[in-house]
Design brief:
The chain has two domains: 73 residues; 95 residues. Helices cover 80% and strands 0% of the residues. The protein has eight helices and no strands. The radius of gyration is 17 Å and the shape is globular. The mean pLDDT is 91.
C-alpha cells in the first residue's frame, strides 16, 4: 500500500489529502475548543477547498488525469461539502443556522447527479462539470466559509442567507441543467 501512495501522482495525493483533512475539520468544529476550534476548522476547510482547485489545475496542465482522479476527486468534494453542511446543522453558537431542509435538498441533488453520471458512464458518456455546477460549488464553498467564520455582523448575517439560499437554488438549477443537457442517458 505504501508503494502505491508513493507512485501516486500529485493531483491524486492532493485528493487523498482533502479526504484525510475531513476528520480533522470535524474534530475542531465539533470539539470543545470554542472560537479557536471554529477558526482552526475554517482554516482546514479553506486549505481542503484550495486542494480541490489545485489538483484539477495540476492534472489538466501536466496531463496527469487518471481514472482514480476522475472517480475520487468529485467524491472527495462531496465528502468535504456534505460533512461540513451536516456538521453545521444545529451548531449551538451559530449566528445564522443552516436549515436542515437546505442540506437535505443539496445532498439529494448530489446523489441524483452521481447516479445520473453512473448511468452515463455505463453508456460510455462522459458528463463534464457544467458552468452551473461550478458556480454551485463556488457558492457552497463560500457559504460554508461564511457560516464557519460565524462573524457577528449584519453584513455577514445577510451574506449568510444569500449564500445559503443561493446554494440551494444553484443546486436545483445545476441538477436540471445536467439532466436536460444529457437526457439521452435516461433513454439508454
Amino acid at each position: 500500500m505504501g508503494k502505491g501512495l508513493i507512485n501516486m501522482n500529485l493531483p491524486n495525493k492532493l485528493t487523498l489529502l482533502r479526504i484525510i483533512m475531513i476528520p480533522f475539520f470535524i474534530f475542531f468544529l465539533l470539539g470543545d475548543f470554542g472560537v479557536t476550534g471554529r477558526y482552526i476548522s475554517t482554516a482546514i476547510f479553506c486549505v481542503a477547498s484550495f486542494t480541490d482547485c489545485l489538483d484539477g489545475y495540476i492534472a489538466r496542465k501536466y496531463n496527469l488525469i487518471t481514472n482514480f482522479g476522475k472517480f475520487m476527486d468529485p467524491l472527495a468534494d462531496k465528502l468535504l461539502v456534505c460533512s461540513a453542511m451536516i456538521a453545521l446543522i444545529g451548531i449551538e453558537d451559530a449566528l445564522v443556522s443552516l436549515p436542515s431542509v437546505v442540506v437535505i435538498v443539496i445532498i439529494a441533488r448530489e446523489f441524483i447527479i452521481t447516479g445520473f453520471r453512473t448511468l452515463a458512464v455505463e453508456q460510455n458518456v462522459v458528463i463534464a462539470a457544467s458552468f452551473w455546477g461550478k458556480i454551485k460549488t463556488i457558492c457552497q464553498m463560500a457559504m460554508l466559509i461564511v457560516l464557519l467564520l460565524n462573524i457577528d455582523n449584519v453584513f455577514f448575517n445577510y451574506l449568510s442567507y444569500i449564500l445559503i439560499y443561493g446554494s440551494l437554488v444553484l443546486a436545483i438549477i445545476s441538477a436540471f441543467d445536467y439532466i436536460l443537457k444529457n437526457k439521452d442517458v435516461l433513454k439508454g
